[in-house]
Amino acid sequence: MASTGSDLRIQGDDNLQSMIVGTVMRKIKSRTWKKQRYFKLQEDCMTIWYKSKKAGNTHSTFSVSDVETVREGHQSEVLLSIADEFPPGRCFTLVFRGRRGKLDLVADSADEAQSWIKGMRKLIENLENMGESEKLDQWICEWFQKADKNNDGRMNFREIRVLLKMMNVDMNEHHAHRLFMTADKSQTGTLEDDEFVLFYKMLTQREDVLRVFQDYSGDGQKLSLRDLEEFLRDEQLEEVDGVQQLAMELIERYEPSDTAKMLKAMSIDGFLMYLASAEGSIFHPRQQSLYQDMTQPLNHYFISSSHNTYLMEDQLRGHSSVEGYIRALKRGCRCVEVDCWDGPNGEPIVYHGHTFTSKILFKDVVNALRNYAFKVSEYPVILSTENHCGVEQQRVMAQHLNTILGDKLLKSTLDGKIPVSFPSPEELKGKILLKGKKIGGLEESLNGLVEPEDSLTGEVSDEDEAADIDEDSLHCNSLRRTAKKSKQRLSKELSDCIVYCKSVHFSSFKHSRIHSKFYEISSFTESKARKHLREAGEEFVHHNARQLTRVYPSGLRTDSSNFNPQEMWNTGTQIVALNFQTAGVEMDLNDGLFSQNGRCGYVLKPDFMRMSERRFDPEVPQNREGYQPRSLCIQVISGQQLPKVNIKESSVVDPFVRVEIHRLPLDQAKQETRYIDNNGFNPVWYDTLRFTIHAPELALVRFVVEDYDKASRNDFVGQYTLPFSCIQQGYRHIHLLSKDGTSIPSASLFVHVRITNLV
Asked: Which residue ranges does the record assign to the PI-PLC Y-box domain (predicted)?
């Protein structure tokens, strides 16, 4: 199929031309696995094709859209391991989206490496800058190429039937043939470029959107400026004062017809493009950018947090990698964890102690922090240390932190004075804060009362997860460990690196209220946190209005599964640490909460969780001051281009939608639509679901699409999670995400949303 509006003009780009010719490079998996592969860019400028140099081997492909970024030089553990063999100028890494991993490559020359590095970056940039129309053209082009089995640039009816199955459409053959014949304007029995586009547009005609369009169109053909204003005001609930200006801007932005633009009108094509855009999304664009007050004390925010960040897999035999830190930080995580032990050659190592997980160097973790801490967010990163090192290697840890991080490491209070509360994320921009045990308090450090020879004897780590097995496991003798909490000395050098996050043992809420300093932080396993929530939920919230708290997964979760973070956010707990490497509903909720506020990793807690004079019990939200429940009404209208979940070519999904409300126990609810037989391409429901939300400031709404199966467990198709407070009302599209949080091209739901106050 000929290139479309997404034509990347390769003729004038030497790098892309070189990629299309192809290059032999080494694919590297380890020091011993280095194989030559022939790589080339396909003519569509969207697909990378590669195969072994040996004749007869099958080839593989991947899409440029799957690549998140290109790293230059020795920027992976694998390439670092062969640094003595290949210079950095010849090495680069393609990092894939989600949890897919990466591809380490070595070119024959630095020039060839640069061609691929610059070429790939240009392709990625072009994709990111594509308009909605170009994305659609590109998507149509990709489907054409998938179905054009003999690569002759045209499609016969047999290929069209195969395509429909690939696209999740179980269509009556007579109807499919009628569409085919209508699109075959040349009457050749095959569809070429424009004919296939016509076939696709007939196939994807949106009767649901057309119905809305005609409800507001004065003549059934277009929306005049006044028609569009009425729709925006009455359905989308846009602000009345600016609605005329908004209507004109939308016509200018999304209307493809110059004639309609001159008439200040919008056609059905422009209307659909608006509804499919970010402005037509269920997530309010204003709240996707940084919109919250970032000048409140640090403990007034929920903080995106990772547990055992170094692990890529399970907690017993999993692979440890610096990549875990890079991935977490690039997802907006602002609190990462290191589990430090004495290593060989005087170098501290990081791994999950008393297990068979692999080991990495502490200094490599610190280097990753230096390089990636502030790529996505400029707000502070907390490095939570579980420290099992002796004094000597603690000094090495301190030396690495100081030498590698330099000014990024916070070494003193911001003004050198004794503070009475936390500084704000705004004041701590670009800073890395160390969390751990400290000799004495902040006051003694600032007044110079800690002598160089001073050290603290006691439990160095406040959460030795391997030795201090969670209460949940006490009934299970086979899981008990003989290891005891280590009694070690703490070096002054490492202690001095800790300012605002001194780890302390938790005695009781009453003890903390009377004795604790604001900069003292306690860590709880999930079961201990639940116990506190059950026995003293209001006190727990009150405690977190004054101090930081961290909650981490049970030691029994050896598979790196996660607990429900919602329970802990309900207590105002700021640092709810999850296993970022494990996909599932728990990480969907985490991604959903932190998808707002510019994805900066900080979300301001509601005022009733920040103010110590306000009282809030998560079990009884009706008793709080300012209680205002809301009604949420969602009409699930239709779905578009849902992905196949079964690899069988003849399989087509039977989709249904589940809407879940997550937050307080009183708000936990879920409802489902009916399922639609054999239609993942354009299923239509028009099913209405209603919910009551008692704490709208805390609620998250999760949309899940599954493939119904009466004989076995339903298969996951896609999901989307967002804060209730970020929902746009009216007719909205929901752009679905895969299990690992990456977008699914063109897969969406179309819904109508209404929110009303309940008396």
From this structure: 494-610
| Token pair recorded at residue 446 | 């600032």
**Phi, psi values for residue 525, rounded to 5°:** -70, 165
Query: Is this structure's pTM higher than 0.70?
Result: yes
Q: Are 45 and 4 in contact (CB under 8 A)?
A: no
Tell me whether residue 647 is exposed, middle or buried, using C-beta atoms within 10 angstroms of its C-beta: 0 to 12, 13 to 18, 19 or more.
exposed
CA count, 13 A, side-chain hemisphere, 431: 20
Residue 529 near residue 554 (C-beta atoms within 8 A): no
Q: How far is CA 223 from CA 210, 214, 232, 249, 254, in A?
A: 12, 8, 11, 14, 13
**Marked catalytic residue, from 300, 307, 694, 735:** 307
Tell me if 613 sits within 8 A of 299, measured CB to CB. Answer: no
Distance CA 738, CA 745 (A): 10
Looking at the predicted structure, is the pLDDT value of residue 488 above 80? no
Q: How far apart are the first and last CA of the chain?
A: 59
Alpha carbon dihedral 594, 552, 400, 343, in 10-degree steps, equals: -140
Burial of 41 (0-12, 13-18, 19+ CB in 10 A): buried
Secondary structure, 3-state, 468-483: CCCHHHCCCHHHCCCC
- Count Cβ neighbours within 10 Å for each residue of 280-293 and write b for 16 or more, e otherwise: bbbbbeebbeeebe
Q: Is 108 helix (H, G, I), strand (E, B) or coil?
A: coil
Q: What is the pLDDT of residues 253-273, one digit of tens each?
A: 999 899 999 999 999 989 999
Residues 8 and 120: beta-carbon distance below 8 Å: no
Neighbouring-strand partners of residue 350: 340, 360
Task: Give the pLDDT score at 5.
Answer: 40
d(CA 324, CA 733) in angstroms, rounded, equals: 33
Phi/psi at 392 (nearest 5 deg)? -60, -45
What are the structure tokens assigned to 617, written together?
A: 């019990």
pLDDT at 524 over 70: yes
pLDDT score, position 625: 80
Q: What is d(CA 286, CA 295) in angstroms, rounded to the nearest whole number? A: 19
Higher-scoring residue by pLDDT: 202, 92: 92
Cα 122 from Cα 585, distance rounded (Å): 35
Q: How far apart, in whole angstroms, are the C-alpha atoms of residue 749 and residue 683?
A: 9
Q: Tell me, what's the pLDDT at 711?
A: 80
Tokens (6 digits) for 524? 């709880």
Contacts of 63 (CB under 8 A, 6+ apart): 46, 47, 48, 142
User: pLDDT per residue over 325-360, tens digit each?
Assistant: 999 999 999 999 999 999 999 999 999 888 888 899
Q: For residue 30, how many other CB atoms are within 10 A of its CB?
A: 11
For residues 152, 155, 156, 161, the Cα torsion angle rounded to the nearest 10 degrees is 130
Rg (CA), the chain: 28
Q: Residue for token digits 């709810």?
A: 576
* Catalytic position from the list 352, 532, 543, 662: 352
Using alpha carbons only, what angle is made at residue 283 by residues 277 and 287, rounded to the nearest 5 degrees? 115
Question: How does DSSP classify residue 311?
Answer: B
**Residue 717 pLDDT more than 50?**
yes
Q: Which residues contact 529 (CB under 8 A, 6 or more apart)?
A: 540, 551, 567, 568, 571, 573
Percent of residues, the chain, with pLDDT higher than 70: 91
Taking only the tens place, the pLDDT of each residue in 25-50 is: 999 999 999 999 999 998 878 889 99
Rounded to whole angstroms, what are the CA distances from 664 to 343, 622, 629?
Answer: 45, 11, 12
Decide if pLDDT at 724 tops 90: yes
- Check pLDDT > 50 for residue 629: yes
Q: Cβ neighbours of residue 477 under 8 Å, at least 6 residues apart? A: none
- Based on the residue annotation, tell me whether 352 is a catalytic residue of this protein: yes
